[in-house]
Design goal:
The chain has 353 residues and is of the alpha/beta class. The protein is 41% helix and 22% strand. The protein folds into two domains: 200 residues, Isopropylmalate Dehydrogenase (3-Layer(aba) Sandwich), CATH 3.40.718.10; 139 residues, Isopropylmalate Dehydrogenase (3-Layer(aba) Sandwich), CATH 3.40.718. The structure holds 3-isopropylmalic acid and magnesium ion.
Length: 353
């Protein structure tokens, strides 16, 4: 296997965690005789500093020409002025849109030896294994119109929650395909009691449900889903939802896993390279200290092997190594431990064999 991977370390702890994920990928490549090439590029705040924009057309083109993209995190206080014209997050959104990765897979599993790391009671957490599928290139993040103007003498800001039928259909269909390899259960999350876009979403989901009678479909309002995530998370399996609902629900869901630092994500489209990133942010408060948890990014690298390179055994090997590392009590600071980013990755590499 020959594959080109573009690495976008980004800002804050991004470079620290992506460096470890690349080491893990290199180890896997060495063992399996795969030729993986890695090209680093700037995206986010670091690109604003260098080029005045968060994502240059050249970097986007490099990503589009790659087999997969591995991303750390973007953003930080330096670029946080709400009046700024250029923002690191524009790079991330431009990249998602430019790669056409409309589905963001965010698996949430609770490792048995981290049951006590979550503020929730352990009995609620046992058996939690959720796959949140967040629509990623539409909805409230991208709808038009969007912007500022003046209405009746008052400053006004507008964001639009917009979906076309095909955007809903492709992501919900993907959720059903994924559900068939799991517990054959899909929860479609919307706000159909208020939003027109959610009523379209629900209509389409219902149709797909009827065409797939072997999968149980239920609809849940997003406020209820936010509650269920903490009151009965083990009852959820595949969850599919609008872009911003998914953004919010997955930060909430990360609490189940004990730390934001644990959770990976895969963003995929119909074809072309996938984008792989931990769900956590750039954590400016601990950036440069070498103490960030690299697990979310290392597990994202496993998803990269699975979804973009078709290397399932290698992906599973990384996941097993991470599992064992956690079982053996290795912990970074976010989980109350003392291991550095590098030392945690070393422990994972050792168990990878
Ligand atoms: C995420 C992040 C991003 C998002 C930000 C950094 C734009 O919160 O990936 O969840 O909102 O999508
Ligand atoms: Mg988020």
């Amino acid at each position: 296997m020959n594959a080109k991977i573009v690495v976008l370390p980004g800002d804050g702890i991004g470079p620290e965690v992506t460096a470890e994920a690349v080491r893990v990928l290199e180890a896997v490549a060495r063992r399996g005789g795969h030729a993986l090439s890695f090209t680093e590029r700037l995206m986010g705040g670091c690109s604003i500093d260098a080029h005045g924009t968060a994502l240059t057309p050249e970097v986007l083109a490099d990503c589009q020409a790659a087999d997969a993209v591995l991303l750390g995190a973007v953003g930080g206080p330096k670029w946080d002025d709400p009046r700024a014209r250029v923002r690191p997050e524009q790079g991330l959104l431009g990249l998602r849109k430019g790669l056409g990765v409309f589905a963001n897979l965010r698996p949430v599993r609770v490792h048995p030896s981290l049951l006590d790391s979550s503020p929730l009671r352990p009995e609620k957490l046992r058996g939690v294994d959720i796959m949140v599928i967040r629509e990623l290139t539409g909805g409230l993040y991208f709808g038009q119109p969007k912007g500022r103007d003046v209405k009746d003498g008052h400053a006004r800001a507008v964001d639009t929650l917009e979906y076309q039928d095909f955007e809903v259909r492709r992501v919900v269909e993907l959720a059903f395909r994924i559900a068939k390899g799991r517990k054959k259960k899909v929860t479609s999350v919307d706000k159909a009691n208020v939003l027109e876009s959610s009523r379209l979403w629900r209509e389409i989901a219902t149709g797909i449900g009827q065409a797939n009678p072997d999968v149980a479909l239920d609809h849940m309002l997003v406020d209820t889903a936010a509650m269920r995530l903490v009151t009965s998370p083990a009852t959820l399996d595949v969850v599919v939802t609008e872009n911003m609902f998914g953004d919010i629900l997955t930060d909430e869901a990360s609490v189940l896993a004990g730390s934001m630092g644990m959770l990976p994500s895969a963003s995929i489209g119909e074809q072309g390279p996938g984008l792989y990133e931990p769900i956590h942010g750039s954590a400016p408060d601990i950036a440069g200290k070498g103490i960030a948890n690299p697990v979310g990014t290392i597990l994202s690298a496993a998803l990269l092997l699975r979804h973009s390179l078709g290397l399932e055994p290698e992906a599973a090997a990384i996941e097993r190594a991470v599992d064992r590392t956690i079982t053996d009590g290795c912990r970074t600071a976010d989980l109350g431990g003392t291991l550095s980013t590098r030392a945690m990755a070393d422990e994972i590499l050792r168990r990878l064999g």
